[in-house]
Specification:
Blueprint lengths: L3 E2 L10 E2 L6 H9 L4 H8 L3 H13 L1 H21 L9
Antiparallel strand pairs: 1-2
Amino acid sequence: MTETVSTDDVFGGEPRLDGHRISVIQIVDMVRGGRSPEYVADQLGISLGAVHTALAYYYEHPEEMRAVRDRHRELETELRERSIGPLTVEQ
């Protein structure tokens, strides 16, 4: 049975499937995006049980998952602020 683990050196400690570089959030976002668990399992090369393990972890740890999403939003904001915008041509 696949388990979820968190290690500081992979995804900054975010929960992921043991033995994979597949995060719980990645699986949840695919399913919430309209993909069936079977499709997600096939596309990621994991078992259907592993998909359900990730989904269960997500719903059983709402505070932790909220904190992960908050960190993602903060990073996106920081990257957006630091990025160089598209070049414009002055006429």
